[in-house]
């Protein structure tokens, strides 16, 4: 029905690598696959093996879970989009919303869950990509704030900054990006 690939980390893995929970759900125990360094696995490619793998209106939804967290949705593939690469963005121990139900006990290792679901009920956007954009925006904002702090002065309860601080920061940001092609990629790590 499907296969997965961890870019730069694995050969294609078939459905038999996963533990089948029931007729429509599969779990991959990341300790079995990579050991304790699951958080070093940053993305996953999932693909349907043929156009008949899923009935019309159905999708394969991808979820991730870490010890102490619940499963979080990362994206889906379906007949109109038979393959995709999803950033895994492993959840923290206190985050998550149980979207893929399973046996009652919390997981002892990181897991990837695959579930056949109605396409119409799944979120339309790639949750992993949205989180990656939010993290990037936060890191760029932190970079700006740190730059501004070095030029600030305090007057009473107000923070004073030069009027052209944004222009100064943006020029420095552009220069670093031009000199170092990998500079912007470090914001997303």
TrEMBL record:
Superkingdom in the source lineage: Eukaryota
The chain positions of domain Hikeshi-like N-terminal read: 16-122
Q: Which InterPro entries match?
A: Hikeshi-like_C, Hikeshi-like_N, OPI10
The record's GO molecular-function terms, alphabetically, read: nuclear import signal receptor activity
Q: Where is the Hikeshi-like C-terminal domain?
A: 133-186
Pfam families reported in the protein's UniProt record: Hikeshi-like_C, Hikeshi-like_N
Q: Which GO terms describe its biological process?
A: protein import into nucleus
> Could you give one GO CC term from the UniProt record?
nucleus
User: Which PANTHER family does the protein's record reference?
Assistant: HIKESHI FAMILY MEMBER, PROTEIN HIKESHI
UniProt lists the family membership as follows:
Belongs to the OPI10 family.
Q: What is this protein called?
A: Hikeshi-like domain-containing protein
The gene from which this protein is expressed is LOC112278495
């Amino acid at each position: 029905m499907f296969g997965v690939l961890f870019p730069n980390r694995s050969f294609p893995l078939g459905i038999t690598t996963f533990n089948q929970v029931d007729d429509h759900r599969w779990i991959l125990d990341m300790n079995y696959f990579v050991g304790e360094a699951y958080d070093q696995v940053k993305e996953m490619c999932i693909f349907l093996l043929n156009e008949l793998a899923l009935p019309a209106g159905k999708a394969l939804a991808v979820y991730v879970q870490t010890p102490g967290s619940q499963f979080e949705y990362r994206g889906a593939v379906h007949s109109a989009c038979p393959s995709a690469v999803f950033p895994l963005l492993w959840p923290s121990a206190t985050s998550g919303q149980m979207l893929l139900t399973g046996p009652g006990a919390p997981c002892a290792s990181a897991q990837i869950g695959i579930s056949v679901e109605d396409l119409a009920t799944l979120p339309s956007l790639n949750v992993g990509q949205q989180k990656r954009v939010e993290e990037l925006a936060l890191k760029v904002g932190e970079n700006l704030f740190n730059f501004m702090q070095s030029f600030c002065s305090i007057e009473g309860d107000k923070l004073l900054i030069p009027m052209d601080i944004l222009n100064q920061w943006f020029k420095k940001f552009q220069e670093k990006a031009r000199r170092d092609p990998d500079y912007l990629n470090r914001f997303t790590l």
